[in-house]
Amino acid sequence: MKALAILGSPRVKMNTDLLLNSVIQGLEEQHVVVEKIELKKFNIHPCIACGACEKTGVCFINDDMHKLYQKFDAADIVVFASPLYFNSVTSIAKTMIDRCQMFWSSKYVYNKPAIDRTKKRNGMFIATAGSLQKENGFMGATLVVDLFFRAINTKYHYNLLVDNTDKLFVKERLGLLEKAYEMGKKLTIFD
C-alpha cells in the first residue's frame, strides 16, 4: 500500500507536523510506503477558474501541482494535516485543494475522470488550533477537507482535531502522539 502524507503547515517539527509524523509511524508499522509532502516546498499557483479543465480534463497551469495529481491517483491512503488559520486550513493547503477542481471537472463536466474512481482510498485529517475551540471550532476546516476528499475519491474516515496548542504543546499531552500512531495503523483497514 502507498500513502500520501501532506503537511499543510508552513512550520515543521511543530504540533501539526509532530502529529502527522506519528500517524506516518503507524502506517509504516503496517508496511505502508509513505511519501510525505511539505506543501511549503511546492510551487503551486492558485486556481483562476478559467474552465480549461472542463474542456480538456487537465489543468493548464504548469507548476508542481501536476506532480501531486499523479500522487493522489496512486495513493491508497491520504493523510492531510493543517493548522487552523481563521477556522480553516492554511492558505498553502487551500491553494492545493482549490487546484483539485481539475478532478471534479474531469469527472462531472469532461466525463473522463483524471483519477481512478474505482480505487478505494482511506483518508484522515489532522488539524491543530492554538486557542481553545468551541464545539464547532474546526467545522470550517472539516467542511473544506470533506470536499477535498470527495474530489480525490477518498473516503474520509478520521479526524484528529487538537486545540489549545499555544498553551499545551502536543508532546506534553499524555497519549496524544500514541493516539495518532494508532490512528495511522487503523487507516490500513478498508471497508
TrEMBL record:
The reply to whether Flavoprotein figures as a keyword in the UniProt entry is yes
- For this UniProt entry, which residues form the secretion signal? none
**Highest taxon in the source lineage:** Bacteria
Task: Kindly name one Pfam family recorded for this protein.
Answer: FMN_red
Show where the NADPH-dependent FMN reductase-like domain sits.
1-131
Arranged from A to Z, the UniProt key words for this protein are: Flavoprotein, FMN
Q: What is this protein called?
A: Flavodoxin family protein
